Amino acid sequence: MNLVEDLIAVANHFGADPEYSRAGGGNASVKVDGVLRIKPSGVPLATLTAADLVGLRTDVLLDALHSDEPDEGDPVMTAATRALVDAPGGRRPSVEILFHALIPDALVLHTHPLVANALTCNVDAEALTSRLLGDEAVFVPYTDPGVPLAREVERARDAYTARTGRLAPGITLLGNHGIIVSGNSAAELTERAEWLTATIAAAIEGPPDVIEPSPNVIPANAGIPGTAVATIAPALRGLLGTPERLAVVTSDSSDLVRTVTTTPAGDAILTDGPLIPDQIVYAGSLPLVLDASADAAIVTAAVTGYRERHGKDPVITVVPGVVAFGAGADLVAAQTALATFSDALRVARDANRIGTVRCLNVAERGFIENWEAESYRKAVAASKRAGRMDGKVVLVTGAAQGFGLGIATELLAEGAQVVLADLNIDLARQKAAELGAQHGPGRAVAVAVNVADPDSQLAAVAEVVATFGGLDVFISNAGVLRAEGVMTQPVADFDLVTNVNYRGYFLGVRAVAPILAAQHAVRPEAWSDIIEINSKSGLEGSKRNFAYAGSKFGGIGLTQSFALELVEYGIKVNAICPGNYLDGPLWSDPERGLFVQYLRAGKVPGATTIEDVRAFYEAKVPMGRGCTPSDVAKAVYYIVDQAYETGQAVPVTGGQNMLN
């Protein structure tokens, strides 16, 4: 490998490991022929490529580091502008270019490892460094990023040389920040990083932990975490974000969160402040703290009070001993915030095992909160999407295949975050993974549901609330069809169709309505939607298909009744009545599809083949074709967009069925 290849290999390896890097945090550089090539802001280490690297003249950067001339604006960016050789895509270089330039080794990697930060985020960090690492590392007390930090790194390295008569080592520990590992090959960097981690980990694990667990920790099986999530998450979701795009609020009731939040280490994180700059950027400086008994009114008052004290919304909300919540514009942002916070809990716990945790003080964290460079990095790293369903959380039942999968796919393309709920959970997970690979992480998730089972519906919705905090649109799509004459259809088939299509719709609405109502209660201007995917068979009878048609007629009755009841809770309820999706598995499945069923039942006079049955049904449509998921999705957009319709049944039949 050449040096650039070495750098990319190391950056990708450590950047993909959450033990070293969260949300793409950290940076990496290589020096070749007097040019420093460094990771741009907003590009994760895990996906860094050689083509991403920004080139800067090293001599110009070092001149800026040692210059006493005042600069207007950000001196780091001024130096970067003067030193710039090339910047692919117009990206800005990492904000820490100066200490990368001053370290003479060819390769420099900067990360925020959880194990190492138990030492760096410690009141006793300098003494611990000397005791555990000897002369193999240099310690730099916390210093504001940019020029001050680079100069402090240089001062510490020079002091080491003056004391030992040797060049500074390839490991530098940055107080309340992270580590710098440097060397002249990928193997050298990897060896140093792994040695550092192993050495500190051994000290953390040390003698057995004799701290008794706090009596305030709620057992995971006590049911309280689930109750708190069901009450608090929808209220937070309704209060945060905007009426047009509520925040995603995800939750964590792991042993780490429940245990550490009731200890002195956790109390430091809850009340004293953050540990490192990245915690401020992604999780906020201080969380909102609630009691497990908090209801919507208490949550509302607490959020209002937090805004008055801090001038912003909380990113993290904690119920000590029970659960923590992370809020963000989408699931990835919310998960990143929550993971960053739980990382801080772990670091604080481990810091107290080897010393005393040190939090950033008001001045230190204030610098980061107002530093333009960090705002830029966060903005670049944030996902950018647009579309008619941008930011909406949509739960679709029966979404592993057919109309449900087609609708989910269409909504994803318009910016939605979609939950694929299905009895066939393995297929739903497979499809969610495929859609996530296409549209981005966190955009499609799967949950198991049997729509005919009330407990299964409640569990599925609880899982959605734990993941997203709530939802904006519930699409009751799951359905079955058993075609047969009234004199011959088995009662079991009739019951199956009724239980899935009619009863299942009721059970779904029963499960989601309280969540949608809770969001609206704290944010009255935010409305939500329940949409039943009905059928043209809900608009007129269907020969030898009475069970299906009856369930769909009943669905329209439920839609109209739900609409009248739920409007006061800010919930619109409508139905879409598609024509025949002739290319979907409902019709085309070779064993149980409707083409086969109708042929066997003799529903189409004179038909002797599946092709005869298909031609018969295509001929019924003035537009000459079957309905598609894209057609149905356009009706979904209309229903969600409009603010003055509820209780309607919208036909999407190519003119085959027209309302009177």
Q: What integer value in Å does the Rg equal?
A: 30 Å
How far apart, in Å, are the first and last alpha carbons? Answer: 74 Å
Separate helix tally: 25
Secondary structure: number of strands: 19
Shape descriptor: elongated
Q: List low-pLDDT spans.
A: 208-213
Q: What is the average of the pLDDT values? A: 91
Main structural class: alpha/beta
Biggest sheet strand order reads 4-3-2-1-5-8-7-6
Please estimate the helix content.
40-55%
Strand content: 5-15%
Largest sheet: 8 strands, mixed
Tell me what you see in this structure.
- This protein has 660 residues and is of the alpha/beta class.
- Helices cover 48% and strands 14% of the residues.
- It has an eight-stranded mixed sheet, sandwiched between helices. It has a seven-stranded parallel sheet with strand order 15-14-13-16-17-18-19, sandwiched between helices. The protein has a four-stranded mixed sheet with strand order 9-12-11-10.
- α5 (114-120) crosses α14 (331-354) and α12 (277-283) runs antiparallel to α14 (331-354).
- Residues 208-213 have low confidence and may be disordered.
Briefly summarize what is shown.
By secondary structure, this protein is α/β, with parallel strands linked by helices.
Walk me through the topology.
Elements: H1 3-15, E1 27-32, E2 35-38, E3 54-57, H2 58-66, H3 75-83, E4 84-86, H4 97-102, E5 107-111, H5 114-120, H6 125-133, E6 138-140, H7 147-164, E7 171-174, E8 178-183, H8 186-205, H9 224-239, E9 248-252, H10 255-260, H11 264-272, H12 277-283, E10 288-289, H13 296-310, E11 316-319, E12 323-328, H14 331-354, H15 362-369, H16 372-381, E13 393-397, H17 402-413, E14 417-422, H18 425-439, E15 444-448, H19 454-468, E16 473-476, H20 491-522, E17 528-533, H21 546-566, E18 571-578, H22 585-588, H23 594-601, H24 610-619, H25 629-641, E19 649-652
Parallel strand pairs: 6-7, 10-11, 13-14, 13-16, 14-15, 16-17, 17-18, 18-19
Antiparallel strand pairs: 1-2, 1-5, 2-3, 3-4, 5-8, 7-8, 9-12, 11-12
Helix pairs in contact: 2-3, 5-8, 5-14, 9-13, 9-19, 9-20, 11-14, 12-14, 17-25, 19-20, 20-21, 23-24
